[in-house]
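Weekly modeling sync, notes
Attendees: S.R. (lead), two postdocs, one rotation student

Agenda item 3: backlog of single-chain predictions. S.R. asked that every request posted to the team notebook include the full sequence so nobody has to chase files. The rotation student volunteered to paste the first one in as an example of the format we agreed on. Action items at the bottom.

Example entry:
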Amino acid sequence: MPNRITLHTIAEAANVSVATVSKALNDTGQLSAHTRRVVLNTAKELGYEKSKGAIALRHQSGLIGLVSADLEGRFSMPALIGAENTLGASNHAVLLTNSRGDPKLERAHIDQLAARGVDGLLILGGETDSRPPVKPNTALGIPIVYAYAPSNDPDDCSVTCDNTAAGAAAINHLIDRGCSRIAIISGPEHYLATKERIDGAMAALRKSGMRPAAPTRYGNWHESWGRTAARLLLDSGARFDGIYCLNDMLARGAIETLLARGLKVPQDVAVVGHDNWAVTATECQVPITSFDNNLQEIGRRAARLLLDSIRGNRHRGVMKIGCSLIVRESTLTKPR
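Predicted structure, as returned to the notebook:
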């Protein structure tokens, strides 16, 4: 039979007095939010079972810590809006911090938020590459949900977009528009978004009994690479009537090259992008058919899962939100 966990056991492990442990577990006396979190987390780790859920509920502060890796990024703001709207509707106040992609600064912000007694943490990344989880001794047992950049710990709860399904849907859309020879222009090969979109695209091509019209062109995410990659495709002699570009900047650059070479979009070559960045997709010479990552929905869903975790219903794994196809002129009139 295992040894019984006593207040003395918890006090020794947490490096506090027995009186402090008693106050934390029984909701009495004056303790800082940080000390209370340390004691409750230590008790949980040791397997102490006394009314942990009830204690946590009594100490809800109504505060949520939101740590963003990039407040100025175009992927972060829509997700922040979705999360804040959901949390505000549940009468929670949001304490917003910006880690600027610096892990040390992120840890410092999390420690400060924990000291303020936040009920939960929502950690928003600037890209979909997975990230290391927050260290348990840093978060002090506070419920955490990761948005956009998922945790690489399967026990954590994360919400991101389904890039694989979007890649497949892009190819299927081009096929539905009559394309039979489809080329792919990509950003950097090492990004998870690149791998997943390419995987989805290749699977859709195989399912349709097709192969890429040319080897995938990898480069950066900039419009200039879209122009260069399209020029290389044309100069290679490859025959193609559709191009899947992995973001809208690439698609815009590719369209500019196609038009400069006397080709019509979409009559000669249909083009699909990704990200639905309005300033690029709608102001291109030929407005770009694109995929929207539904970032506000990612923020909303992450906030709902966090609120549920705060109520004691812990979630695990990665939830993927589908991307929405936004059809514009770059594929609209391609005949079958």
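Discussion: group reviewed the output briefly. The first strand starts at residue 63 and ends at 68.
Action items: rotation student to repeat for the remaining queue; S.R. to check formatting next week.
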